[in-house]
Amino acid sequence: MRAKEFVAEQVVTEKNVPTNPSKWSYYKNQAKKKFDVYPSAYANAWAAKKYKAAGGKWKTESIQHEAEQSPYAIGMAKAMKMYKDKPPLAKKTIKKAHEIAKAVMKDDVNEEDLSNCKYGKYYCTTDKKYKCRQGPKQSRS
C-alpha cells in the first residue's frame, strides 16, 4: 500500500449521545447556572448525574469520516501497523514513521505541477506543502 492510499482510509469515531436531547440540554443549562466555570469536569459530572436520575440514558453513535491527517500522523499510524508496535514506541518505529512522512510530503509536492507557476511558489505552513502564488508578491509596508 502506497503512503497516499493510506490517507483515503475511513476513520471511525464513537461518541456518546443522550437519548433525550431536550432533557440533557435542560440539565446542562442548570449546570451552567450552578457552576462558575463551564465546561468543567465537575459541572458535566453533576449534569450527567441529574440527567441519569431523571431517567435519561446514553447511546453510542459511530461517525465515519475521511482521514485528513498530517503526514507525520499518517507515517506514525502506518509504522505502528507495520511493526505491530504500541506506545511507548521503539526507535525503529519512529524512524520508519519519519521516512513515511517525508515520502508523503514529497508526493504532495509532486502532486501539483509547480513549474508552471506564473507568480512563483510558496510554502503553505497550514497545508504543509508548496503552492503556486495567485498574484504578484505584495510588500508588507
- Give the strand order, joined by hyphens, for the main sheet: 1-2
Number of H/I helices = 5
Give the radius of gyration: 23 Å
* The number of domains: 2
Residue-averaged pLDDT: 80
Beta-strand content bin: 15-25%
- Strand tally: 4
Structural class label: alpha+beta
Terminus-to-terminus distance: 49 Å
The largest sheet is: 2 strands, antiparallel
Give unreliable regions as ranges.
Answer: 1-8
The H-and-E topology, N to C, reads as HEHHEHHEE
Proportion of residues in helical segments: 40-55%
| Gross geometry | extended
Describe this structure in words.
By secondary structure, the protein is an alpha+beta fold. The protein folds into two domains: 3-7 and 70-132, no CATH class; 10-66, no CATH class. It has helices at 3-7, 21-34, 41-53, 71-83, 91-111; strands at residues 10-18, 58-66, 121-124, 129-132. The strands form two sheets. The chain has a two-stranded antiparallel sheet. Strands 3-4 form a two-stranded antiparallel ribbon. The longest helix is centred in the last third of the chain and has 21 residues, at 91-111. It is extended.
